[in-house]
Amino acid sequence: MSMEANGTQNVLIVGVGGQGVILASDILGVVCMNRGYQVKKSEVHGMAKRGGVVYSHVRYGAQVLSPTIEPGTSDVLLAFEPAEALRWSKYVKPGGTIIVNSRKRIPPAACLDRRMDAPTRYPQGIEQALRGQVGDVRQFDAEGLAVEIGDHRMCNTVLLGALSSVCEFELQDWLGAIAASVKPKTVERNQKAFLAGRNAQFAAMRESLPAETCEMSRSVTCLEAPEIAIHDSWCKGCEICVVVCPQACLKMNERNRAEVVKAEACIRCMLCEWMCPDLAVRVQ
Amino acid sequence: MATAISSPAQVLLSGNEAIARGAMENGIRVATGYPGTPSTEILESLAKYDSEHYVSWSPNEKVALDVGVGAAVAGSRALVTMKHVGLNVAADTLMSVAYTGVRAALVIVVADDPGVHSSQNEQDTRLYARFAELPLLEPSDSQEAKDFFELACEISERFDTAVLLRSTTRLSHSKGMVTLGTVRPRPAIAYEKNLGKFVLVPSNARVRHEKVVERSGLLREFAETTELNRWEKGSREIGVITSGVCYQYVKEVLPEASVFKVGLMNPLPIHRLRNFAASVDRLMVVEELEPVIEDQLKAHGIQLEGKEYFSRLGEFSSERVRAGFQKAGVLPTPQAPENSGVAVTAKENLFRPPALCPGCPHTVPYLVLKKLNALVAGDIGCYTLAVYEPLAAIDTTLAMGCSIGMAIGLQKGGDGSRPVVATIGDSTFFHSGIPPLIDALYNNVKITVVILDNQTTAMTGGQEHPGTGKSLRGDKARTVDIATVCKALGAGFVEVVDPYDVSAVFRTLKAAIQYDGVSVVITNRPCVVSPATLRTTPYAVTAKECNACQMCMNLGCPAIIWTEEMVEGQHKVTIDPVACMGCAVCGLLCQTNAIIPLAADPARRTV
User: Fold this and answer.
1) Most buried of A131, A226, B105, B384, CB within 10 angstroms?
2) Quick one: CA dihedral A157, A162, A165, A167, positive or negative?
3) ipTM of this complex prediction, to 2 decimal places
4) Do residue B177 and residue A87 have CB atoms under 8 angstroms apart?
């Protein structure tokens, strides 16, 4: 990275709660400070364990004013997850670098659409989209490297290693900052993970990665809702079908017989038909 | 690492850690508060210092402020911390301590949340300072957060007043470099009885109100000279009045401008600001949230521009401040970016809201409440996340402790077609859930109160409270038992249930909503992530057994996701073994026994 006119360097680190974004940015902050730079860091708290979006802005240089990075000005975007890289890519400046872990974290919110054949709502062709915005995109399986070292949680230090391949700091600066920031008994493994990420980047710089087409796959085929038929005189009112239906399509009526109340919500799971001890339910 | 007692070196501290450091360097002897993002880390950081000072969580912000006032009256410097909405809870005490004044310094740190990152509103604490006629200081980075603490103590003691120190999310949760001073313990001053000052009977209160007005006059004079306010001479063409973290944005965006940085926000230095206004051709005010500076200066007849370019809504950033100056014509309008010809095709970002954790003990109660078609008054805490699909089991969330009172209203004012249930966490119950429960019992209202006791203050990161058996410093403390409290208040139906036992939760809640009167159901599983991570053997899906019925997906568990394998148009599921905590609830729900423990080692199957 070359110093800008105003001398402030920007590194945006993003990911999902629980991935260790904040610790990674703390280590970067220590590296910068030990090198004699002024440092400011700004981050989101509270999402750490709840799978929400986590970011940390790190700015360093001779003088740093605003604690946050403006869109279009970040020298590096270090993304712990592909969809998060996409979310924050507009922060990267022209000619900047995106380093991204290729392992997806699919949230429950992406798995809600129960219409027939609805796809998981996760953006497709992320790498291609990133390349469309920023030339220098380096995607690799950082979590896989961490698992090889023996702990998926070291993914954050693997990614820091990858970051180090595009930063001005010396290897010893990084290893020292890691030693000062993580639990004593995990120092060695973290340093190993760091080197794995760093070496993978140096190796990957010589390779090109396959392209994908990019579009949100949102084609949804809606079939007609199935028909649930309840043979009223066979139903003895055991309520099993009402309880097992995950979509609450059925209800007990005033005569204590099962009745269809929300046929349109049926996802054809068949549980009501299968569980009925009296063969009174048919899903067609 | 950030808590070295005496070191001249520079360290990287968050705004909150810097405030705690300021408290240690200025001899605070009593510090209390209630956890609330973004203020929580101040007391947590303070508790790590090895010192004699008393630092504790109070059940709510009003109690915390009462403790702080008591300490200051006794003669010890005191610190009270809270988030912006916490000050509403403490407002009764605040308005009165404005009359009494203090003896030793009382610093009230209030952390606002512009942009509503983690709150229910974005109210502006500066308006409270005007309302209560209390001085308010507004630091703009970590170094100032520490330095202003010293000045806050001095002002408090010199002018005999409580002092507000306002932070915002961006200051509290940004780290900057801080030069440390020395930790200086400070003994208490001897107690002196002063009835006229500290007993606010009407005859005394009338006299004290005169003192408030007199003090405000003295503070206005002080504001004209204090180094808290800083005039930075620059270009004559444009002058900017700003404060707090907005100062950093202004300096970043308009380095040439003349800037008046307001550090003492209340009262404002009107004469100096008038001189500043006269020294520049065009005057603008950049302030987050409400037009507090703008309205006052306009009332004094000073011409300026502000909220027409800088919104009242949300959090500022350098890009928003830049856009404001562009709109005002101070900065040139940007040209279209050069790379706009490149096809950027990914149009939609992934919706990734925070979710209840894998294994969260709050999940099943909400699943059952949804099944029971209950009208659910929610409250403030992690469990608010049950508002999202697929649980979507909450009808209302208002403010701390509102669930039970609102449930009474929903029951009395509703048509009775749905059972009315209040859900409230353990820490929120202690905060402000007990008086409304007394109301429900006193008036014998047919509601169910579900107390989701996960034995911690989870949403803010796992703080202790009166029910956890530990103090803020981690020492053993007396435990207030929630079931005992409810029974002692006279509740006839009090049941404790294991929230991982789906059928037990169903049976208990069904009985509770049929009970004729106030029924209380308490869940008893601890939070799975704080203070300790509780995990056991993860579960896995046997793909050939899964019929894609989506029953487990109704939990909204982040560990369970779809695969690409489909059965009749529906996705089969898989479980992320890294994320799974092993609570086994999905296994209980699975009708085809497709979900089983990943490792078949019975010794590890403790749940």
Assistant:
1) B105
2) negative
3) 0.89
4) no
